[in-house]
Fold this sequence. Notes:
The protein is an alpha+beta fold. It is built from five helices and nine strands. The strands form two sheets. The protein has a five-stranded mixed β-sheet with strand order 3-2-1-9-4, covered by helices on one side.
Amino acid sequence: MGDIRRRGAVALALTGLAAPLTLALGTAPAQAATSCTTQTGPYQKQVEKFLGLTVDGKQSTTDCKAIQAFQNKHGITPNAGYAGPVTWGVMDLMQKQKAVGTNPNKEGKCPTNKGRIACVNLTLQLSWIQDGNKLVYGPVPVRTGRNGYETRTGLKKIYWRDIDHVSNIYNVPMPYSQFFDGGQAFHSVNLSMWNPPGSHGCVNMTKTTAKKYWSLLKKGDDVFVYGRKPGT
């Protein structure tokens, strides 16, 4: 999340959801080398299956290295290769996101009587743009507000756009910012979309997605946020 003070002058679509299972999307901050744990985690079998490893429910050196690589890719700490609840939670979310397919508004929770609207499902950490019942773009994974900084729910409107915005609260760039609720905005980040625990309230996106949203949306367009991010 960032402030709304101006500083300076004021297609990842469905196919992108295949990326979680191949670990192809997102980058994470560099982490210090950590030795692999020999401990078997409570979600060992689930994690082994997700990563395409031998499913025997027992930690091995191969298991640990694969789990650790996944943790490093998505900024999950600790990153000792332990099949714990945080790591499995990320994997489980990825699977649920992929299962959505081409009908993210199947339950009809995002309004279809507003024309073009950007929808954000906090529960599944997905966003898309629709026009009536027509899917315009997405769904794509996003990264929303962590516990204590939740992305606020409800019907909003984009009221300010700043392609080169910089937050003076956190002193970080927020490229392609489109503000829809106080300091909360769509904008790109150089992080994995599954990097826990989440943002400071903004809806984080990859650069590809943020650029696409910038081209498809304009000031005055509607935004609808619903659901609840896991862990909040």
